[in-house]
Amino acid sequence: MVPxxxxxxxxxxxPTGFVHGPGRWIVGSLFVLAGLALNIVxxxxxxCAGTDPIPFHPTTAIVSHGVYRFSRNPMYVGFGLWTxxxxxxxxxxxxxxAVPIGLVLTDRFVIAREEKYLDRKFGExxxxxxxxxxxxx
Length: 137
Hints:
The protein has one domain (about 1-10, about 25-50, about 65-130). The radius of gyration is 17 Å and the shape is elongated. α1 packs antiparallel against α4 (about 95-120), α2 (about 25-50) runs antiparallel to α3 and α3 runs antiparallel to α4 (about 95-120). It is about 70% helix and about 0% strand. It is mainly alpha-helical. The chain starts with a helix and ends in a 5-residue tail after the last helix.
């Protein structure tokens, strides 16, 4: 969230643009919709598996079906996609730069912590899942 806030602030003082024409609305909307769809499907898949999708709550199961067959972190991929879509919609280079920065920060500070927790809690079950499924896509 920090990169997004910084991008909005930077764009207020130094507006930038990187794409022109009506195509940006289509591309931006598609990225936003794809990202939100991944967030919703990932959330619901975890709920249906009986575990809490909120990262601050205890995990009760390794979810390896649905979108979790393709990515260990589909909700974070979704976050990246809808952020990219917003960059197109608001036509901001700052927001475009916030996408990789936000994903790197998420990878280093959130996912790394979550993976250590899951490794401790689930051991070989989680390690086997990690071997089968990529972190992102």
